[in-house]
Amino acid sequence: MRPDYLHAARALQLGREHAVEGEANRALRLYDESLGILRTLPPERTRDILLAHTHLAYYQTLTLIGARDVDHHLSQGVSYARCTRDPLARAIAEECLSGLDAVL
Known about the structure:
It is a single chain. By secondary structure, this protein is mainly α. The chain has one domain: Serine Threonine Protein Phosphatase 5, Tetratricopeptide repeat. 77% of the residues lie in helices and 0% in strands. It has helices spanning 2-20, 24-39, 45-64, 71-84, 87-97. Helix 2 (24-39) runs antiparallel to helix 3 (45-64). The longest helix has 20 residues, at 45-64. It is globular, with a radius of gyration of 13 Å.
């Protein structure tokens, strides 16, 4: 099962790199790849942390390109960040929520 986590984490990392480089469509495809892998795995802290990071990265990338209907990824990312208590995921979630007058 570890190769699945590594593959999902690598897709997330590459997606973030493409998003920073302005290649949003490529980034979104990589996030979809990561989410697809993670959704097949049984619930577990590592999976949930990666889901939090992937949903939040997806939200941030969609927000950068001005997409609509991004609330699903924000709510999923925040939810996973809350339940895992991962400090980095929580910090990213709070940053995403900061412009929405909401608190984690």
